[in-house]
Amino acid sequence: MPHPDAPPLPENEAQRLQALRRYDILDTPPEQAFDDLSMLARLVCDTPTALINLIDDERQWTKSAVGAEVSELPRSLSLCAHAILQPDVLMEVPDALADPRFAHNPMVTREGGLRFYAGVPLVTAEGHALGSLCVIDVRPRRLDDAQREALRALGRQVVTQLELRRLARWFQTQSTVDELTQVWNRRAFDQRLADEWARHGRRTEPLGLLMIDVDHFKRYNDELGHPAGDRVLSEVASVVGDALRGTDHLSRYGGEEFVAILPTTGVNGAMPVAQRVRQAVERHAWQPRGVTVSVGLASLVPAKDVPAQQLLERADHALLLAKRRGRNRVEAFAGWQPL
Ligand SMILES: Nc1nc2c(ncn2[C@@H]2O[C@H](COP(=O)(O)OP(=O)(O)OP(=O)(O)O)[C@@H](O)[C@H]2O)c(=O)[nH]1
C-alpha cells in the first residue's frame, strides 16, 4: 500500500527511471560542478539550503547538498517527487504547513522543518524529469521573478552537467574497451600494467601475467570465415573473463591474443588460474568445432630500473614454448630457452 500522502507517479515512470539509470550517477560521490551550481542557487535565492535531488524508484537521492547534510530520503517524503510531476513548471511552495500535500510530512512538521520550497525539474532532452534543483528555507516566503528565472537557468545547467558527465564517461569507455570482445584494449592494458608495475614495486610483491593465444586461429578463419572468427574471439574473451578472478584484468593484446594481469600473484598462484583458463576454453560448447588456447605465464617482483616490458617478454617466451610443445597447454617462464 502506498503511503496516503505519497506523491503520485509520473505517467512515463518506467521510461523515466530507465533514463535516470543511463546517467549512472546514483550513489556516486559529490562533484564540484554540481556543488557549484547548488551554491549559486542558494546565493541567488537567498536560502539557507540548496539541493540537487534525483528521484529513484523508492527514494530521493541527493547528488549535491549545500547548507544541509542529506543523502537520501524515502520517496514518499520527497517534495521533489511532486516537482517532477510537472516537468515544465517551477514548483514553489510558499508555506508547506499551509499546503495539504505537505502539511503532515515529517520533513515539514518536525522541529526546524522546512516551510518554503522551490524546485525546478531537471528535464532531459527527451522530456524526462530526473529530479530537481531546489532551494528550501525554514520560514515561509516567496521568490521574486528574477530569482525564479535564475533558478530555471541553473536547473538547465545541472542538466548540461549531467549530459557532459555522461559523454565523458562514454568517451572514456570507448577509448579503453575493445569493440569486438568488450574486454579492455591495448591502451588500457599498457596503462594498467605501468600502474601495477609501479605499485607492486613499491610493495615488493610479485605481479603475474598470462599471455593467452587462440590455437590455429588462422586455420579457423580461413576455413570458416572471418565473421565466424570474430565470434570465436568474442566468446573466448567471455569464457576467459569468467575463468579469471575478480581482481584480474583481462585485455585484448591484439589479433587473437589476450593478456591478463594478475595482481600480487607469483608463479605458483598463477598456474592454477592459467590452467583454469585453458580448461574453460577447451570445455566450452564450441560450434561447429572445438577451440583451444595456449597460455604463457610469468611473474616478477618489479625491481628498480627493470621495465615492465621484461614481464611481457617472459610471458611471451613461455607462450612460444607452449605453442612449440603442442598447444592447448600452459607453460611458465623458467629461464630463456632455445626455441
Ligand atoms: N576473425 C578475426 N581474425 C583475426 C583478427 N585479428 C587477427 N586475426 C587473425 O588471426 C590469425 C592469427 O594467425 P597466426 O598468428 O598465424 O596464428 P595461429 O593460426 O593462431 O597459429 P598459432 O598461434 O601458432 O596456434 C590471422 O589469420 C589473423 O588474420 C580479428 O579481429 N578477427
From TrEMBL:
Domain GGDEF positions: 205-335
Enzyme class name: transferase
Catalysed reactions, as listed in the record: 2 GTP = 3',3'-c-di-GMP + 2 diphosphate
Superkingdom as given in the UniProt entry: Bacteria
Enzyme Commission (EC) number: 2.7.7.65
NCBIfam families: GGDEF
Protein name per the record: diguanylate cyclase
Organism placement in taxonomy: Bacteria, Pseudomonadati, Pseudomonadota, Betaproteobacteria, Burkholderiales
